[in-house]
Fold this protein.
Amino acid sequence: MKTITRKSLIYKSGLGFYCLNHVQGCSHGCRYPCYAFSMAKHYGRAAGYAEWCRPKMVANALELLDKELPKLRAKAVAKAGAEEFRVHLCLTTDPFMVGWREIQTMSLRIIQKINAGGLVCDVLTKGVLPRELAGSSFSGKNRYGISLVSLDEGFRRQWEPGSAPYEDRIRALRYLHSQGFSTYAHIEPYPTPNIFKQDFEALLKAVDFVDSIYFGGWNYSHAAGKYPDRAGFYAELAKKAKAFCRAHGIDFEM
């Protein structure tokens, strides 16, 4: 696969947490409005959708980590203790991209290196979380999550064409949860019924074992904006999700 080099890797996002993106682009090719893809087009990092779906790995990612991790750990210890500083994989790409063994292997090496440096990771994917993450060379304090906005494979093929089947994502997450890891599900961007109508409660039940659920709407889309009382629709779903999480001892975020 093609590679690129960067001058730095770890950064503090506008959302307030530390993250890294060791790949440019994403072969999952999500068709709903993707903020990462739109920004890549805006800044000339991808000419179009086809180029975005051909990922390029950061060739010097491990070397950059060797330089940056000691500084981040020192900052963490000085401020609040290393455990307060989590490194998120990833914000603009996917660490376990389907069909790209090179990326998956690099992601595992990066997580190992971060853990060996005394810091922990939050990992989010539309791929399949490897069972290796439960091994002794990874921190037991890592958090693992999946993006899950539907259980319908027809929806996935239309809107997330290169991603892993939903059942495979859930099974892998459930395994890591059974091994004692903190797990979570991102139900975002959830479609309005004019885009795709489905059973929200069935989706919640599919991840009733996780420790936390994050819920968010379908943004940056004219179609979602045209749905009558869009705000009311999402408010009602949020109310249902909160009640579900309360009943199952799950943390809820929006």
